[in-house]
Amino acid sequence: MRHMETFMGGNLSKWHCGFDREGDKQKLQIEYIRIKYISKILLSNINCNKEFVTAETFEFFLRYSI
């Protein structure tokens, strides 16, 4: 999905999607972007289960926060 977000047409050899080369930093970037996408999907107004997800998240936060 990140590739689709960042490609604006043009020369492919000059296009960069924003990820670092393979390695630990790239793994962290991918993990972050996965969290971002799943959060947007789960909390979208079109999600029929949004209220359930929100309630479960709140309950989890209360139970495990310091």
Protein described:
- With about 70 residues, the protein is mainly alpha-helical.
- The chain is built from three helices and no strands.
Strand content: under 5%
Through-space gap between termini = 34 Å
Number of strands: 0
Report the order of strands and helices. Answer: HHH
State the helicity in percent bands: 55-70%
Main pleated-sheet profile: none
The average pLDDT is 85
Give the overall form: elongated
List segments where confidence is low: pLDDT < 50 over at least 5 consecutive residues. Answer: none
Radius of gyration: 17 Å
SS-derived structural category: mainly alpha
Number of helices: 3
Quick synopsis:
The chain has 66 residues and is mainly α. Helices cover 59% and strands 0% of the residues.
Task: Describe this protein with a few key phrases.
59% helix, 66 residues, mainly alpha, 3 helices, single chain
Task: Give the SSE map.
Blueprint: H1 2-6, H2 24-42, H3 50-64
